[in-house]
């Protein structure tokens, strides 16, 4: 629109110059008929120049209006993005609070399959002891992923929901234990905190004796909180003397990235689960590191 305004302004200037030339020619023309025609042409060109100049001003005004509308749209888009991020953060905080409350009450969050296309899973809080009778429900996701239950049905939906998870099995007589570690983020920048959920589900018949769940904190991260955990060879561990059939053990862990990141890179948070004297089963949870601002000063320590 601004370019059209410039083009019309240029045409208006050209028509004005043409009109002036025709007026000058009419002034020196000896033939009255030709002189009259030149004056008439000059008047027409002058009128056309005025009209084109008027159009140029309109286009210029429209260009300014479009620019202002574009600025407002950009501002609105930023506000909507900020609102979406706030809503996401609020949902994650509510989910974390639900997990904390469930854990404090000896409970566990799981995703129960509903067989409904519009709402394929519902989040349930069940007792860790007995799992509320859901231990043998093959369609359920136990425990619930850190970023919530899937919003669509099918295996692909479950894989998407568990994209932040690392899951493994501990083979034992009578059936394996299901171990999982999930994170609320797949990437982190310096100063950001990652919320981890570590759990073991015993969906087999015999009880599991002396089950230890450990998460090794990667270099560059500091421990923020690990309620009930103890440090074992550089890893945060939770020991359960016994996990009954159709029951679970779970604890929460918060770690913070406290070093600069020169460019995109990856680390793996190691989950190890051992039962009795058996060698631990291990799995890694990948976490992407992104460059960001300077690290936030933080003194490592355990709370909670």
List the keywords.
Immunoglobulin-like; disordered C terminus; about 300 residues; single chain; alpha+beta
Could you please describe the fold and organization of this structure?
The protein has 304 residues and is of the alpha+beta class. Among the domains are: 2-80; 165-289, Immunoglobulin-like, CATH 2.60.40.10. It contains 3 helices and 13 strands, in the order H-H-E-E-H-E-E-E-E-E-E-E-E-E-E-E. The protein has helices at 2-28, 32-104, 155-161; strands spanning 107-113, 121-127, 165-170, 177-183, 187-188, 193-202, 208-216, 221-225, 230-232, 235-243, 247-257, 265-275, 281-289. Strands 5-13-12-7-10-9 form a 6-stranded mixed beta sheet, with no helix packed on it. A 5-stranded antiparallel beta sheet has the order 3-4-6-11-8, covered by helices on one side. A hairpin with a 7-residue loop joins strand 1 (107-113) and strand 2. Helix 1 (2-28) packs antiparallel against helix 2. The two termini are 62 Å apart.
Summary of the model, kept short:
This protein has three helices and 13 strands; from the N terminus they run ααββαβββββββββββ.
